[in-house]
Amino acid sequence: MDSCSACVVFDESLTGYDFGPSHPMNPVRVDLTMRLAGQLGVLDGGDSPHGLPLVAAPHATDEDLLTVHTPELLEAVRRSSEDPTAVDARLGLGTEDNPTFAGMHEAARHVVGATKEAARLVWEGEYLHAANVAGGLHHAMPDRASGFCVYNDVAVAIAWLLSQGVERVAYVDLDVHHGDGVEKVFWDDPRVLTVSLHETGQMLFPGTGFAHDVGGPEAQGSAVNVALPPGLTDAGWLRAIDAVVPPLLREFAPQVLVTQQGCDAHRDDPLGHLMLSVDGQRRAYAALHDLAHEVADGRWVATGGGGYAVVDVVPRAWTHLLGVVAGRPLEAGLETPEDWRRLVRDRTGLDAPLRMTDGVEPRFDAWGQGYNPDTWLDRTVQATRQAAFPLNGIDPHL
């Protein structure tokens, strides 16, 4: 993998998206990621003048937000932002998942602005790849907050790309939870292909995203869902990605690839039931990088997403992601810096991982080697292929 023209959109105030100390989505995970990436030379500055440059993150405007969200939602978020006691559970505000907090509107629109800026930098050719690890808030719906997500930064960024004349955008979501908000926004838009690989909704929030969910009447086949069985390890997860993502992207030929790398499918994550390693996730990031170069002339917008093992998993996974975005992947077995481990202890009281690896060599059997109907994984993957592939002009049996 050669180094690429790439950047990360970030400033420290993005950690202001904060539902409080008892909420699973603690913004310390973003701060620890950026500090680890900096100490390992992934970011520009200090001892690494050739690392990823940091680009300032602007705030999204109301006009940006209204390309996806209703005026009623914006007004309600503003009210709750100014007075956190002004909850509106009907719009998902003041719930257990989305408690209100002072400054919520500003914090949420800042995340949106960062992802939109990443999309702009890529589409206008300033960088080939751009990342926003604070982004990936894929559950927010047009008319309500949902699943820790107030506004949908990914959907706003894709809508902006379409407004600039982009004719085909592919969105690939690797979060353990179904990317339901992004799918909803573009459900009936054939210009956007949404592909979500997630733990089955039979077991996990939001309870949606099955093989038969293939898009609206004007965009049949534009939504693709793989509902994965609980307990899945790297081998099965990577096999599912291999079976579904490359054939679809090659046929769709997107002009821009947008991805969500929620790392909550890791075996240590407290909310999901998949059993991945950081090493398996690292391999998937590399595969998406290569696909961006193969099908989208390298244009790649990468975001974070879920991930609630805020010390053990998220910083390592997303630092690997940033290394891949830069075209300079980190060695899997690299030691974490002692200064970073000390910082983790001071900030959280927890012991940080000693290495960037879980000690796993991720291997999988490629789908082309044969389909096994006796396994839950292969049955669900084949159900997705049979439902979505013909609608995209692909033979599901090849």
Automatic annotation (TrEMBL):
<dbReference type="GO" id="GO:0004407">
    <property type="term" value="F:histone deacetylase activity"/>
</dbReference>
<feature type="domain" description="Histone deacetylase">
    <location>
        <begin position="23"/>
        <end position="323"/>
    </location>
</feature>
<dbReference type="GO" id="GO:0045150">
    <property type="term" value="P:acetoin catabolic process"/>
</dbReference>
<dbReference type="InterPro" id="IPR003085">
    <property type="entry name" value="AcuC"/>
</dbReference>
<comment type="pathway">
    <text>Ketone degradation; acetoin degradation.</text>
</comment>
<dbReference type="GO" id="GO:0040029">
    <property type="term" value="P:epigenetic regulation of gene expression"/>
</dbReference>
<dbReference type="InterPro" id="IPR000286">
    <property type="entry name" value="HDACs"/>
</dbReference>
<dbReference type="InterPro" id="IPR023696">
    <property type="entry name" value="Ureohydrolase_dom_sf"/>
</dbReference>
<dbReference type="Pfam" id="PF00850">
    <property type="entry name" value="Hist_deacetyl"/>
</dbReference>
<keyword id="KW-0006">Acetoin catabolism</keyword>
<dbReference type="InterPro" id="IPR023801">
    <property type="entry name" value="His_deacetylse_dom"/>
</dbReference>
<dbReference type="InterPro" id="IPR037138">
    <property type="entry name" value="His_deacetylse_dom_sf"/>
</dbReference>
<protein>
    <recommendedName>
        <fullName>Acetoin utilization protein AcuC</fullName>
    </recommendedName>
</protein>
